[in-house]
Protein 1
Amino acid sequence: METIQLTESRETTAGFTTVSEPRITSPLGFTAAGMHAGIKRKRKDLGLIRCEVPAAAAAVYTMNAFQAAPLTVTREGMAVESRMQALLVNSGNANACTGDEGLADAYRMRKAAAHALDVPEHLIGVASTGVIGERLPIGKIIGAVPGLASSLAVVGHEDFCRSILTTDTGIKAAEVRLHVEGREVRISGVAKGSGMVHPNMATMLAFMTTDAVIEPAPLHGLLREVTDESYNMITVDGDSSTNDMVTAMASGLAGHRPLTENHPDWAAFREAFAFVSRELAKMIARDGEGATRLVEVRVTGATTLEGARQAAKAVVGSSLVKTAVYGADPNWGRILCAVGYSGAQLDPAGVTVELGGVTVVEGGRPAIFDEGAARRALEQPTVEIGVHLHEGVEQACAWGCDLTYDYVRINASYRT
Amino acid sequence: METIQLTESRETTAGFTTVSEPRITSPLGFTAAGMHAGIKRKRKDLGLIRCEVPAAAAAVYTMNAFQAAPLTVTREGMAVESRMQALLVNSGNANACTGDEGLADAYRMRKAAAHALDVPEHLIGVASTGVIGERLPIGKIIGAVPGLASSLAVVGHEDFCRSILTTDTGIKAAEVRLHVEGREVRISGVAKGSGMVHPNMATMLAFMTTDAVIEPAPLHGLLREVTDESYNMITVDGDSSTNDMVTAMASGLAGHRPLTENHPDWAAFREAFAFVSRELAKMIARDGEGATRLVEVRVTGATTLEGARQAAKAVVGSSLVKTAVYGADPNWGRILCAVGYSGAQLDPAGVTVELGGVTVVEGGRPAIFDEGAARRALEQPTVEIGVHLHEGVEQACAWGCDLTYDYVRINASYRT
């Protein structure tokens, strides 16, 4: 299984360098492991990340009113001291809508990891993804954890990545390195998710590690901010799931002075952290169920940031735009239409739309454009849709994918 | 082409009787016509409804920020005295995003009809549906209007119905009769729309006629109210279009005392009017692009009407629920998930979900149910999904359809 490749990236890498072979275990202090515990028929389904010290940690959770048991348990543990030393993740079963028994199962998962790693339970995060409403095969999980723990290693990165996947077609991982006070700092992350992906998070799990020195409070503030401009700006099918969670663990082993907003290297660290988050988010969108293309919608000239985000999400989430992209049909009318109902403040006569570099709408009206060139822009692995509202200075970017026959096929028969 | 059949209806018909062969021209004073003017390649594309007196009229328009030229023109005419004597409608071209020239074209359409029918321009409503961003072949339309006007007849119902269709697979029409002060009153309506259908209206046109005696003000109030519980509660793909409009014309030829909320027969009239609106809305949902089934989601026990509507719309609009229905997969997890992110106030442990008559979720957890029976419920022409929140007394119903391969096929190549 290949790592999801983003064929291009508009991202600036000023202030940090990207790593071609990312590992969740690159930051100092982290090891990982993954195995087949028997939750799924064949593939790996149980993964573990461990930090050799209790890491400063932060987490954000789905907005869905139905929150899966592992989220409740992780949130409760984080409430103690906002630190995490290990994360136990299973795929194949979401442990959602499973009531008190499901909650008890999540606690058992946590207890098993705490016991195997000899750390307090509140330092263990748990996460699950897969089918909703069925009890976890908790016996299999508890039985497998000791072996999983004993296989923790820096080379465990790929096994871990595989163990958290469901309908994903590839591994999602990104890593950057930067210097803080002249010392090398690593920021790495892995993610899973393809269906049910939407703003406010979805069946999407992302785990980030760093060896930067940063207290839980600033780390949490950073994670919240960055999540709104990365994970919360992707959509595959508009559905937000019950299990989404993004966590960040900072081992602090890089040994510089603690990072806060006042630290001279904060801006560089923030940009590097945001870059990893955006890369993972885009990989998830690119791997949307049935997707053949990544769609990037950049809205500029909005009066408010919220309006820019609404417009970008409306376009990238429109089934009609998504099918038009699939058909490589430069149907700019559907793009205008989505912008029109997004709620963003606009004057129709001021809107410009670009496909790739091709201006297809100017002043809210069709421009004379080269149909062939526009069509080619829609056939790129990454389709760039630009919308300029000419109202203000705010902008936002959203990512999604095309809507294909395979999306229908995959979701018309997920359980069977 | 058949009229869209709703295989079943939970609706009560107390106080009125349904008409098996509805005609937009049944109410006293109305005639209609439809023809091929050459906007489309072959099919009828220009339709006209005329009332022999200036009818009391009301209209509601799309919420989309991009409003097509004909809406601007119709709104302007209605502003004069809230009356309408004729409606000229074309399909094949939406006259949207066409700027000043498009606006001039809409005025020319109106002028042509006013001239042919010898009525003031402000009494002519115009509507368009079809491709966005292309100029109308206004010459063809102006040339065709006189012949269209001369063919106006009570039997013109079907020609008119055909002339307003785009990707519709069938005619949408409904009619009821009731008694006001002992006199027979007719309420009839026709509609078009299949793609881009969503709350807040879509490429959806509905024209209602009645011979009831009612002033514009109460008629407008009634139309607004009823639209929120019918046309605004259907969704096919979540996209709201630039051209939606619903109009109501009341000839007043039934000759009873004017209907107001204080009239003893108001309740009966309101229910009859709402029934026709719901039937048309359901026909549009049933005819959603690529749809094989009508999906009806009834949410009960909500704390607020808005919450009930949000939850019903979230479930009926979920791509994952829609594909599950297509696959006849009783995937109640996706239904709970949609309710969970709808924003409706709920306690997960209190939610019940039914498919057809089969309870699949009780207290927010999977019930033991007959998988075969649930599957059969999803294979019905009308799939009934019931969600009870057990929080309050408010309820709402939303209608949609399944998401199929054909939806992708139709929309990946609409223009080609």
Protein 2
Amino acid sequence: MAGSSFGTIFKITTWGESHGKAIGVVIDGCPAGLPLDESDISQYTDRRRPNGGSMSTKRIESDRVEILSGIFEGKTTGTPISLIIRNEDQRSKDYSQIADSYRPGHADYGFDAKYGFRDYRGGGRSSARETAARVAAGAIAQKLLKSMGIECSARLTAVGDIPASDPQAVEALVNRCREDQDSIGSTVECTVKGMPAGIGDPVFEKLDANLAKAMFSIGAVKGLDIGDGHLAATAKGSTNNDAFRMEDGKVSTATNHAGGILGGISNGSDIRLTVYFKPTPSIAAKQNTVNRFHEEIEMNIKGRHDPVIGARAAVVVECMTALVLVDALLLNMTSRLDRILDFYQH
Amino acid sequence: MAGSSFGTIFKITTWGESHGKAIGVVIDGCPAGLPLDESDISQYTDRRRPNGGSMSTKRIESDRVEILSGIFEGKTTGTPISLIIRNEDQRSKDYSQIADSYRPGHADYGFDAKYGFRDYRGGGRSSARETAARVAAGAIAQKLLKSMGIECSARLTAVGDIPASDPQAVEALVNRCREDQDSIGSTVECTVKGMPAGIGDPVFEKLDANLAKAMFSIGAVKGLDIGDGHLAATAKGSTNNDAFRMEDGKVSTATNHAGGILGGISNGSDIRLTVYFKPTPSIAAKQNTVNRFHEEIEMNIKGRHDPVIGARAAVVVECMTALVLVDALLLNMTSRLDRILDFYQH
Amino acid sequence: MAGSSFGTIFKITTWGESHGKAIGVVIDGCPAGLPLDESDISQYTDRRRPNGGSMSTKRIESDRVEILSGIFEGKTTGTPISLIIRNEDQRSKDYSQIADSYRPGHADYGFDAKYGFRDYRGGGRSSARETAARVAAGAIAQKLLKSMGIECSARLTAVGDIPASDPQAVEALVNRCREDQDSIGSTVECTVKGMPAGIGDPVFEKLDANLAKAMFSIGAVKGLDIGDGHLAATAKGSTNNDAFRMEDGKVSTATNHAGGILGGISNGSDIRLTVYFKPTPSIAAKQNTVNRFHEEIEMNIKGRHDPVIGARAAVVVECMTALVLVDALLLNMTSRLDRILDFYQH
Amino acid sequence: MAGSSFGTIFKITTWGESHGKAIGVVIDGCPAGLPLDESDISQYTDRRRPNGGSMSTKRIESDRVEILSGIFEGKTTGTPISLIIRNEDQRSKDYSQIADSYRPGHADYGFDAKYGFRDYRGGGRSSARETAARVAAGAIAQKLLKSMGIECSARLTAVGDIPASDPQAVEALVNRCREDQDSIGSTVECTVKGMPAGIGDPVFEKLDANLAKAMFSIGAVKGLDIGDGHLAATAKGSTNNDAFRMEDGKVSTATNHAGGILGGISNGSDIRLTVYFKPTPSIAAKQNTVNRFHEEIEMNIKGRHDPVIGARAAVVVECMTALVLVDALLLNMTSRLDRILDFYQH
């Protein structure tokens, strides 16, 4: 089916494979009048690029984003914004092993079962490279949020069970994984400040439901907490409830176990979510698997892969969160008749 | 916005408030030819009803479901199936306290911020009663899955940190909560057996992304794991990857850390998910909060509430899972041209 | 598929068959704060009811609409409004002829080809009775439009080639059709006054495109003109173009060949559309057809049918137009960043 | 809003302005396994290009389509197909007149009212150039239809009131229009052969409703007939009904006034539709209008415009029809449980 679009009013459609000519995204429904140029976007896509650090692949991609439409005289026009990122490093490789084999922890087998065959080069459509397009679109959502006084930011908070606040221990752990031809899981947290209360819907379009869909649409995400998340399952109501109080003339909460969302609707507190990434499935160590001829085989996955997904994925979490929030804010404008009549000045 | 519909092909739309005349659901896109009567549905809605047990409210609701359309000569016709459940216990009560106050842990404040006012009786649209309509619709999805040989079942697995397999300790904990005018969190697990490989989509419509949206659309859900979930964030690739192997002539996996979904597509292993519920926010103990006049107040929430949400919510988890799976299975029929041509017999 | 919903923000879902227990509609996305009671709705559904006049069936339906949800203290709450109309006249009849035969001009054969069987009683889901649910929903859209100063009205303008302004000639024609056991086509025009300029979208969601979908979703509609419509195909640009001019300080047009819409966007002139209905396909005269056993047969269609569809369908045209306009007005609120920032008061 | 997508399963998203860097389209939901290369597409886009004939602009565009994604080893992979057409003729021009003025018959005024400003170069997003992207997408839909034995073709049938079968009279009329600095309306007919019965839905997603939306989404379309269309409004039931009969063992109709669709569902007869285009609004003769400063002005529209829209638009009608049909065929696969169970081989 048509599964490459996300959002209702502010809607993005990504396209492209890891080793095709290019990847890209069409952003439809962006309000007219937002100043935008390519540097607004590259400051986000640069955060996703391999940086040569210990947690990153050694491959170099420039990921230059070109704006093809939707901007006139430096501002969005309200029409679709088409962004393209050329794939540079398309040298022909020997893909024979990966072409026929199902890498453990990857979608290869599912792809063949679904489509009958697949573009196996570099993971094809399921490559993490697809997320560069999301980040490019999310950069625009971020700029819109900022214009409304809303700050959305995500960061790596743990590698395995080591807090990211201890960079030396993290580096040691990562190096050990590399030496062992292994990889390690990671944790990313996202916080949103300045979100107004009243955003989201009470039933299926709960704000947290859409955030959850956004997070699990990122490859390798296996767990999500909103606020205290899974820890709430062992808490008592008397401590888990956040008491409302008045602060500077505004309704506020004394604690924030809920992560800023109650019954699917924002309550004005910071939105907090924690995203759990599995370890990179591409590891150099030998693994047992099967090939498409249904023979059991052993395989070693070659190539340079990030041993930790969360490092580069934090900006993807941030951008997907921003996309959900912008859409919810736009949708929310129609919730009250009095405000609609004001808008149309009757 | 229009947030009361769920699904693309097999689409449900719920309606109704806790203390209005009725609640209900319209199921649109159900294939024609499924034998269906009210008993198919009541076996699921009965599991959600208060049962008078220790974890349940003492209120009695019969929750009889009436089929109003879409069935002819005992079978679905392919047209919308409208189901209605009358609200029986609508005696007039004194709602003055709840009408003006924002209960901690509830959507009351968000509702007022969003809509300007709210139907405060029994939680209105945000009442867990709305899930009875989902369960009624999910019962049909379950019958479709069964006809395809797929079994989807969920159960309460923990109350607080006590495993549900120790019912005596659970009962003791729950009784202690009641005595303390408190409530406790809970955990529900759902398992799907017999799901074919190749179902789901690689990008935004990942099978796990849609399951995540479904789960977080259930009130009080704060965390979700697919497969090993948040534990994968501290695992290594060499142990977290599930090796493919051949079993009875079919591709299978030696372990199932992934929970049956890789890259958003089912791989034929059991789908496993764990849902974390916060403790019931309505507790009898005194709480601090504010009212709609923005005055700080104390409130005691009267009424008989379940101290543990997961007990009655397990069937909601199961039914929402079934709804996601049916929709994905139907959508998947168009993935390959050869199968489409077979279908249309050319 | 799920084909019983219409609209994006202001979304309706109809359900029910002609001879089932009831028909109904769920309106989701109606803004909160609109005063609404059943009399607001009945003034529209009454216009669609058989009135015993010469152009109408002799059957009597009361079509009483009951509001089941979404209203609190006399106002819409922003949650789904569920409306139900019980089917009263469900006496058991001998449907054996219609059950097995494909009535010319009806969907019977298509239904069997699509679903394998059908609820044949009174046309089942394809009965014009379904439009009573649309009218009930459209009544709410009309009330919203009126609150914004927009008037939308439709009326029968011709029966066959006789203008409705000549009621005597119309009556004579209709009586002749009845005597001949025949039926006759008709024309309905709809006019919208007070629509602001700038509503609609430039590409697929053109205002006229959505109006066209709405009109052709009404049974028996075979033609549509926007403004001059098909006559524009023989006109010259110099006469067909509507010159812009200033009038009372506002941009206006000297003529209105375009019918108020240019490039899919309203221009502030009256919206004008003309809808062409085929003659009622159910006629008493003998017709050749086939049955579901693929035998050629002759059939006479019994029962009392309107000989002219447009008389009772005018209010359906009006209500479907209103639904399109309300949705477009709500969607349009997000088109400009400056107005969004005003709305959120930053 | 997000108005640049069309379709549910087979979904296209177009982007780009007349004088931006490029235009393009993303086709999402195309089944895997369709052989496709750029020549499959260019045979359709070539029909839309200016050909230098009497009815066409003199401007030359090569409109070369480049496939950027979604194809591997010569076949569609099931992932998004991204197509791009570079805009070649982007020389800087003096747009000062058009920038400030509202051309009669164009969307200029509506754009400013909606978005606050617009990309005025060559009509921006509202340029007919956008339809090149639709045609590129429609070429793929056409190839799918052909693989299923369905033929969909459209052609210009009249210029003004001259039938296209009289090319000499047409040429004389067109030349006269040019000399008069004027333009003329036109008529396009589309016929679909080989469509199976049972495709489409009974209520809002009627096959003709979606065709109507598709047709009115094409700029300059002002009228549409399905089958006999507006003429049915003056016909009698006894002659307008198409009698069913058996032909070569299949259900067929003796006549085809309905144009192959009854109650929103195909009946196996040829689908016939007639589309009415207004005359080109850009004419060289002097016109009265207003500018964005709300001053009444006179303007002459410079540049070389087609005096007849239908000539180049016939392929757009054909491609939009094909897009609707493919989507309806894919959606229809889920209508019957027995066929679903066959598909999944239980």
Protein 3
Amino acid sequence: MRQKIKIGIAGYGNLGKGAEIAVRQSTDMELIAVFSRRPLSSTASGVPAVSVAEAAAYKDKIDVMLLCGGSATDLTEQGPFFAAMFNTVDSFDTHAKIPEYYARMEQVAKSAGTAAAISIGWDPGLFSLNRMLAGAILPNGEDHTFWGKGVSQGHSDAIRRIAGVKDAKQYTVPKHEIIDAVRGGRESAAPSHEAHTRECFVVAEEGADKAAIEKAIVTMPNYFADYETGVHFISEEEFREKHAEIPHGGFVFRTGETSPGVCQVIEFALKLDSNPEFTASVLTAYARALYRMKQHGFTGACTVFDIPPGYLSPKAPEELRRELL
Amino acid sequence: MRQKIKIGIAGYGNLGKGAEIAVRQSTDMELIAVFSRRPLSSTASGVPAVSVAEAAAYKDKIDVMLLCGGSATDLTEQGPFFAAMFNTVDSFDTHAKIPEYYARMEQVAKSAGTAAAISIGWDPGLFSLNRMLAGAILPNGEDHTFWGKGVSQGHSDAIRRIAGVKDAKQYTVPKHEIIDAVRGGRESAAPSHEAHTRECFVVAEEGADKAAIEKAIVTMPNYFADYETGVHFISEEEFREKHAEIPHGGFVFRTGETSPGVCQVIEFALKLDSNPEFTASVLTAYARALYRMKQHGFTGACTVFDIPPGYLSPKAPEELRRELL
């Protein structure tokens, strides 16, 4: 029997907990420990909960560390810290800062002799892969991305920072008439703020000024001001009952012409009951791929573009050819 | 300026003509010649039409040869013949014989020091890639593939071989109620013959026995006997007017659970006005990737599973990270 791939998880929020589940579903992997900054009493799977400060002691005990820090800010510190000791997979998602983050991780990982897969997940990640693939196949065409219906953690956080808001959840909702027009191959390059609406479910503090909260939301620059935004005040009880889940999803299309009037459409879509559990499943599959890249001598930073897809599967190359081609 | 990738096309049917168009759309490529067994008077793009017998003279003038032979039978000969001299990309699609074909191409290419990408296209090809990816991410799940609505060349050929048939075209049509059930995450593992119908448009010879033709079609083992099959006799004129195109497409889904009751759906879909032009566009993008694999020292046979996706794009790795991640 092959030796199992030894996995560590750094960060134990929604994503880290999802990773714990995903590793358990992977029969070729073994979870060694969960690392966190704040002390944890225990983990769902019973593996040791270890302080990040003690991570160095696990250097030779873990093949790949899944970085599940809660935010991009976490990762800019966590990434280089762990990549200096471990092979790492992360979901760094601040699009504009990816080149800078890549350069830092490349430098740290190269000098440490480790491998670091960055910006893994679905967007960036699987969506990026499909945009790239479709663009290479249909050079004469146009890309469209729609997100949702799903929870945007960043927008939910932005609402929660408004005075008088006790809790909030924001759903990004794509406009189906635009999706249908694109899927039908009819041109339609609507900007994101015209192709989506934002629906906000807000629990206000007792006695809070709801009109002021609503105004603060719908006029918030970058987040809401450009969008059709709906604000719904609900009770704490309704919030707990109806808005506990973290669904998400979306569509990437490319429509292109190979000859004049000959339209070709490539579409990739996700419909996710749980965004963190799915993202963690992607990280876990890429941990397997990174482990193999490393075995073939790779060091440094890489992305979904650099990794031979077959490395993601637990199946051997001959099985893949026989069963899945 | 970078040197252009020099492409040859072997075979000048629908697929070869599609490849000629796809290479023209690729600004980093240059078409050198079209090779065919039967003498061609000219090519649409004006490049030389060369007899296959003279291919050896082009050994150092072509970086990648696109094998556009019309059938799997062509490729079992054409593949090893060309791989002994050129880097090749082909769309070998007899699923059951892929391991055998791979072994042969691996042996020929390895000993010639060439690279051969086999079974490239959309099924096998992009569909295989998505099945593999989705299976690696959602190990606890189920795959579904639907084809169509589109023309099956093999089934059309089978009808044309029936006595009394002048021309025919067969469309494979997926049953939308089953697609919707799967997309909605509701379990539904219908076998292919229950999930699709077959619609046949037939031009009969003058005075032919239409009832006998219909019976020969609907009872044909492997091709039609297990399917709901519709047979429509039409005039030659209507055939020319309404059935000249070669559309196709299909869907690959995977539905899986990450936790009990937490359903995740990954979907990849194609909607193609022209199957051969699209398939040729896929071959062309993989020609670029194969050229780069070769530059990095690769020799032997490979498939969609082995090729780092970023190699497909004309963009540099740093552009891909900046623009598409």
